Amino acid sequence: MTQPFLTQLAYPRCGHGATPEEPVGCRGRRVIGDYTGCLAHLDDADRATYMASLTAGSDLVHQGTTFTPELLAELLAAVRDTTTRRPRARHAWFTGATFSGTCHFGRATFELANFEEATFNGVVQLGEATLNGSAGFKRATFNSDAEFIGTRFNAGAQFNEATFNGDAEFIAAHFTKPALFGAATFNKDAEFGGATFAGSVFFSDATFARDALFSKATFAERAQFDNVTFTGDAQFWGATFTGSARYSEATFTRDAMFDLATFTDDALFDGVAFNGDAQFDRATFSGNVEFSGATFAGDAQFNEVVVASSGVLFREATFHKGVQLTRAEFTKVSHLGPLVCGAQVTLDGAAFQQPVTVEIAAAELSCVRTRWASTAVLHLRHTELDLRNAVLEFPVTIAAHANRFPSTRTGGDLSETVLSDQTSSVRLASLAGVDAAHLTLQDIDLSRCQLFGTVHLDQLKVDGWCTFATSPPGLRWSRRRTLAEESDWRVRAANRPERARGWTVPTDKAPKLEPAAVAVLYRQLRKSLEDGKNEPDAADFYYGECEMRRHDVTRPKGERWLLRGYWAISGYGLRATRALVWLGAAMGITVAALMVWGLPNDDPKQEATGTVPTGGGAVTFEIDKADPQNPTGDKVTGKRFEKALNVTLNSVVFRSSGQDLTTAGTYIEMGSRIAEPVFLGLAVLAVRNRIKR
User: pTM for the whole thing?
Assistant: First the structure.
């Protein structure tokens, strides 16, 4: 048979049915040979002659021809291989052809098949067909289902700009060389489950109006889905990407499922919009993975994901809802974020094997049982962090980031509009079960942090401006920093609601602790601050420790009464005002007592008595002083007040005034010289504890 001119744009047309109004007529190509019409318009004798001339391996050149199912079946029967019982043609050239009804190619084999701009009005069935040469379906239109189930494309397959108005079924299809689906439109389901792409595959700018099913597909080389629009569900679960996978600027309108997917090379999701849920559970990323600028409007699940790359994960990504990275394993990730999440970021059970910097602005961050096998720095904003049972093998620093994270994509700052809380405070919810020996906190809100169960709490490093809860305002409570555990105990222990007014009501999950346990927490945290040379703030925790010891019913009553007195007199040596008030009261009582009982009416005079010898010689005198007499008459005079004040002031500094006193006054002075210096000393001690460096 004559070799077709495959590169020839113009071909001899059939022209059947031409009229003055339509001078061109039929646009089908004349059958090669001495025929005057296309295959559809040959008379029975010519068609029979042409069919008889065909054998297995012949060329089929029928551009623009209109095929009915019967005509196509007759043509394929003419090239059927008698051994395999399958149609086999060398070149199948159907450019611009129109196929009506069901087109069944009966597992045909084509060395080269060209269906560019062809129109298939019925179901197209190429199931288990073999296309050894280039298969061209560029700008082809499939108005009904297109079935390429098990089809082998042994050379390039071109479906660029093709339109699939029915289901497109490429289940278990095999593409040996590059497959081109650029700008293709799939108006119904597109099924590529189990398909194998041994060469590169390009779906850039394609549109999937309904579900796109690539479950367990294999992409041996580059898979490019840039700017693709997935209107329905996109299923890539169990897919294997040996080459790079690119989804830059793609849009997933509904759920995107990549569960159990394997990415051996780079996986690029830059600028992707996930408007539904994004599921990457148990996916494996061995190459670089990028979600830079990606937007997740629904839930994002990366549970048990394995990231073995050393790149940056979730750079400038935005999550409107939660993102779950439960039991994820990051073996080489050096940077996580910066990312913004309007709900909770879950890193429960995740493992970081290499030094990592984490930058997250989120409503909540859960790091329960997270394992840090190397150094880590967490820069956080807005979030409430739960660090229960986390494992810190190396130093980990958690710091509040004052300013919004910078954006390298826009040149400004990363938007935080998805967060309702626009304050930059970072709140720590719990350290229970954490070995705090390697933990450093900087500018963290610890007002509701549960510290019970923390190991080596005394080695916790508290830097910057870390804030704690404070006691309720008012005269009843001394103003100081407190722990959440004390607040919880006071609410539970209150006999009347008004006694717990101002203290925060505990949550259902808060442990029910006794004062002895809370005292231990205060003591350990006090030591931590003292080791950090923060003596003034450590004083508040000493106050809290003493408070809990005073309320601890397991301690001896004598010790508790001693603490009660220590608290009443000077606030455990930390309230200078209280000690000074007691000092002033003691001095006032001393002055009054001396005026009433201690000072005599008059200072006793010295008297000299003796004998004078008549014959001269020495003179002997005895000098004596009368005992002071108890006062009578008017005892409240200015002179007596001045004397009493002089005695009292000397007693404060543990000195004797030398004033003559009555017997009662002597005892009053003795008591004053013992008590008042103690009050003064406690006041000085309290001042020192507040200003000690």
Answer: 0.81
pLDDT of residue 586: 84
Q: Are 211 and 235 in contact (CB under 8 A)?
A: yes
pLDDT in tens, 388-429: 999 999 999 999 998 999 988 878 899 999 987 666 689 999
User: What pLDDT was estimated at residue 411?
Assistant: 81
- Give the strand pairing for 157-158 and 179-180: parallel
Averaged pLDDT for residues 184-198: 97
CA dihedral 201, 204, 207, 208 (to 10 degrees): 40
How far is residue 361's CA from residue 382's CA, in Å, rounded to a whole number? 6
Burial class (CB in 10 A: 0-12, 13-18, 19+), 585: exposed
- The domain limits of the chain are 485-570, 576-610+623-691
Tokens, residue 647? 């005695």
Mean pLDDT of the chain: 88
Are 298 and 323 a contacting pair, CB within 8 Å? no
Burial class (CB in 10 A: 0-12, 13-18, 19+), 691: exposed
Structure tokens at 230: 């997935």
Q: Which amino acid is at 678?
A: V
Contacts of 268 (CB under 8 A, 6+ apart): 244, 245, 246, 247, 248, 288, 289, 290
Question: How far is residue 484's CA from residue 504's CA, in Å, rounded to a whole number?
Answer: 8
Which DSSP state fits 467? B
144: left (phi over 0), alpha (psi -120 to 50) or beta: beta
Q: What is the DSSP string of 538-600?
A: HHHHHHHHHHHHHT-TTS-HHHHHHHHHHHHHHTTTT-HHHHHHHHHHHHHHHHHHIIIIIS-
Please give the distance of CA 251 from its chain centroid, rounded to a whole number: 23
Q: Which two tokens stand for residue 33?
A: 């040979």
Average pLDDT of span 637-652: 76
Strands (E), 601-659: 606-611, 620-625
Nearest-CA neighbor of 360 among 395, 326, 314?
314
Closest CA to 126 of 108, 111, 102, 101: 108
The residue behind tokens 């000077």 is 570
Which of these, 286, 210, 278, 211, lies nearest to 247 by C-alpha position?
278
Query: For strand 469-470 and strand 481-482, is the pairing parallel, antiparallel, or unpaired?
Result: antiparallel
User: Quick one: DSSP state of residue 84?
Assistant: T
Instruction: Say what the pLDDT of residue 5 is.
Output: 36
* Identity of residue 94: F
